[in-house]
Amino acid sequence: MVQYSNIMHTEFSLNTYQNKAQILEHIDKLGYIMGKTLTGEGLNFILKEHFVQSAGSRASEKVPQIAVVITDGMADDDVGPHAMDLKNQGIIVYAIGVKDAVELELRQIASEPQDQHVYSVSDFTALQSITQKIVQKLCFEVEEVISHTTQVVISHTITQVSTDCQHATVADIVFLVDCSGSIGHDSFNQMKQFLKSFVSGLPVAKHQVRIGLAQFDHQTYQEFLLKDHDNVKDVLDRIDQLQYHKGATYLGSALTFLQENYFTPEGGSRDSVPKIAIVITDGASMDAVAEPALKLRSHGVVIFAVGVGYYDAAQLRTVASSPSEQFLISIHDYQELQKVMDNMRKTVCTSVEIQAQVLAPKYAEVFFLVDSSAQSHIQAIREMLIRLANQLNVNKEGNRMGLAQYGSTVSVEFQLDQYTSESEVVDHIKRFTLTGSQMRKTGGAISYASHNFFSLEDGTRGYKQYLVLIISGKSDDNVMEASNVIKDQGVTVLTVGLDQADRVELEIIATQSYVFIGQCTQQIIQGIATADNTIDIKDTVKEKIQGISQMIVHVLCTTVVTAEPKNPTIVMPGKEPKNPTIVVTTKKPKNPTNVVIVAKTPPAPPQTSHCSEGSAGHLSEGGHNNNGQYIQHTKQDIKILFDSEKIPKVSHDCIQTDKADIYFLIDHSTSIRYKDFRHIKKFVLELIWMFRIGPHKVRVGLVKFSNSPKLEFRLSQYTDRESLEDAVIAVHQTGGNTYIGHALNFMSPLFKETMEDRGHAVPKYLIVITDANSHDNVEVPAKRLRQQGITIYAIGLKGANERELDYISGDPKRKYLINNFNAFIPMKDDIVKDICSQSACKNMLADVIFLVDGSGSIDSDEFYKIKRFINVLIQRSIQVHPDAVRVGLLQYSGTLRVEYTLCAPQTLRGFLQTVNFMRQLSGTTLTGGALSLTSQFFDTSKGGRPGVPKILIVLTDGEARDDVVRPAQALRRKNIIIYSVGVERANVTQLREISGRPSRLFMETNFDALQNLESDILPKICQPDKPDTTYKPDKPDTTHMPDTTDKTVINCSTTQVADMIFLVDGSSSIYPDQYKSMERFMMSVVDSMNVGEDHVRFGAIVYSTAAESKFTLNQFKTAEEVRNAIANLNQPGGITSTGAALRYALDYFGQSYGGRREKKVPQILFVITDGAATDPELLPVSSLEVLSEGIMIYGIGVAGAMMTELQVMTGGKNKRVFYVDNFDALETLQKKISKELCEDDKQNVSLRP
């Protein structure tokens, strides 16, 4: 074991310990070393220091070498070369990613096939959930390696399993081969070669694929049973030893022999494992085959039949599984066996996968939600629940059951994983009572169920989920939205109506027709009584509920936990059997297309006390004990959650936030679940780590509240980060109701203490976190706190009241409403930026001029929003004063108008009045000319001060009609720092040329979004980086430092003629703001090209489930037209059908759409996507079709895109593959892509007309 960060620490070597107890003892004592994430160096370290003989490696003895890498974030170094070095030494590498680990890096690290060696979990607590899966895979891998040690190692890869069979890992396969006299020695040898090739592509091992083989002529020869060989070498050796017998053909008796000797426990066949028989024959059988084949299939064996030459087709059709078109392979002679081998093995492995799905255990997760006002029926309800628990054989390893009641709120009796046995469940039900309620909020209860009943933390394991509602009257709230949400999550909802229950409402809530009420209930009882004579038919609620319980069992058992059919039929598209009655699985297999399993005859509803048996894995994380009390967690168990994760660095924006007082006010009422309270504490800790903690720097205090507030620790109590962390971890949740107003009042004197301690100058912040409506008024106490000068952030979880959050924060920008705890991450950054931006400018000294675009492309409403943005930016924290920050204002269009100069009276009021009364110019957009004229306004004669930083902020929404490069260079040479702010149609390339650095460029999709920039731009303006160079007028311009702007347009003079089409992913996985980032990226590419009818032409296609051309190569002739068209691309939503979209795009390079292939004009397709293709089987074919027409494909992947798919699309041209981790980073690719375009274009120069 090695622990790594920026240092490598050996915990123990392969030869350090000799037994498991010693290893476990060492692991228990592990320390946490912290530091950077040098994963590449870690891989190199274990290769050089641990997988060597001196450290205990036994590679020379052919002992399997395995590395398991666990990481939670992106590596700070290059992992690729070191991972390759490991794998080239024959070391099998598993990569386990936690939380923020990068999927692409994990795949780089792991061995092939990557889907079997890469594992990801959401956090460290979830690691336990994959332990068993990894252990099982490791055992299989070790066994497989040992069984292959004598084989030839190809490319340092141990296994030679066919890619088509990577998921067909467990099966019993028996070959039954004809050795009669009609075959001949040559054909017999060809058949042996076929068998060897076929078996070589399977993962043969004791716990994986077992192989058996029998020959037949007039008798059957047992060559080897399924139990005889546990490695592929022995199987191949036995095939080599097969003897040709000659004789007559008796296939029927041979099939019976297989059933009696091979597919039995004694022969090595296993329960619940896919069973395959492969029959190869070349003639007609002398005995009957239909009945023996039927008996074999009825035992769950799928039969493939290979007919050679002049075989009896009609006879062999009765042998093969149905449909015979799929399971009967016909060839002319034995030489053809090798040709059909790959396809046949793929089909066999597909069948194995499908059978495995059918045979896998299927259980139900059933949660009952009972109306607490149905008190008069409690005894009947108890009996119904007990009966269901008995019939479903409820236990932790099989079917699970949960119970809750509701009125105005929900009270959970027990979760799905709370009890381990049926007797415990029944004991609880016997004690179950209904509390009664004046309100019946069924909609709210269903919503609560969707969030709290069926997650991994709540005891579900991924099996079919059911919610059964027992309702005695009409709901006092709306049920439709909550019902639709929970059904969309895949939960099947059943409703049972008692007393005054509303039939229409029950039908709205329920899935399909699972509604039981009134006469319908009586009919159910009558139907059940026919099958079960023990039921008395009496028209009482008690008997109705008993009848309903039988029907619910019927529903559950016929849709989830039925006994599996002995003889499943594999149905290919268009060949469904007549009258199929029940779909057993609808999961798409990994290799075949649209294959489903159908049971020919569904089993009757179970009449025994058990619906299903078996075992299954268990994942749980509880927050209550069996008495419903909150479990008090300790400092130690929270340490596991935090210490194993990377500690956030102090925010760069907060370096100047040397003083602040921050109180957290956190809700710990009963409505917050145990695990959610842990997430709240984790958020508090991560926020603390973003600041410099100290008695004279940032101080933190914490108050928790429910019925009443409780001070956990004051601001002055803990003055270092470590003790503060311990204090947060020690905070316990005790429950209660939610009184936020009372808690806010409690905070007022605490903040008064800080004013006495540190005065009014230190900023004061309150961060409130709650999940529910307050039982008291919040508006007045929150307003009183803000009047004390306290900035309040209000964070609402799930059920929080949005209006109350508005009252608390007093500012919509400081209100956050989140549905899950993943949203804490961006919210944390927003709060930190907001706090820090207020402190960043307090000691600022600068001359700042705003240069505002007032051209006609901006309407009056948008111009007002620009003025509002300047107002907020200045008022937030910039101190306007002759001796602090001097401000100026210029407006331009086709001319420049001076609004406010640096020598004007420098008062905040005077400047803001000028901004507010500024009238829009209108006209064209000559940004370059405006920049040229702006230079003089920083001079001493215009109010500029020598030696004071000079800042220009340019705000524009469009493309300049003149050159901006030279005027911007001239400004920067005078040490003027330029920030460019673009909105909507602004030209990103021009903005970059103006600012000179990407870090000084800000872009928003619309004018409303300008307000989002305030917290981003303030720290940069108030703490500006160094100017690009120092201007020295006594030296020629050639001595100046080179400009940092992107010169792609100038340098890439060869990219003058091309046909370029954007193929843009518009699937549902992409958020609207991310889609806008894609549009801005496309615009940046357009801006870097010489667009024109005789130069570079552009087209665009947006795809998801289907593809649609948005504009063609011959539609637009100017860059502005193309940019406007890109800005109007609509996102369709849907799945990611990249393969089909590539094929669709091919036609749009044709002459009728403006393509110039016939004129030898280079043609380029940009594919921009964020995820794996949903039609991966089409990708290679479609890509080849496009590439074969001479079209170059550039694959641009974002976030979840598959690197391997991008490489397939580009035809293996890695230089045309570009990948970024997030959409914001897309715009940084333009320069790299333009450079590659130049290189490609240079190779095509001679081909141009």
From TrEMBL:
The record ties this protein, via InterPro entries, to: ECM_Assembly_Org (IPR050525), VWF_A (IPR002035), vWFA_dom_sf (IPR036465)
Top-rank taxon: Eukaryota
The record's subcellular location field reads: Secreted
User: What SMART domains does the entry give?
Assistant: VWA
- Annotated coiled-coil positions are none
Q: Where is the VWFA domain?
A: 1-134, 172-344, 365-545, 661-835, 847-1017, 1059-1233
- Alphabetically list the UniProt keywords: Glycoprotein, Repeat, Secreted, Signal
Region named Disordered:
1024-1046
Protein's UniProt keywords contain DNA-binding: no
Output the Pfam families linked to this UniProt entry. VWA
Major location category of this protein: secreted
UniProt cross-references to PROSITE patterns, sorted A to Z: VWFA (PS50234)
**Protein name per the record:** VWFA domain-containing protein
Question: Organism, per UniProt?
Answer: Alosa alosa (allis shad)
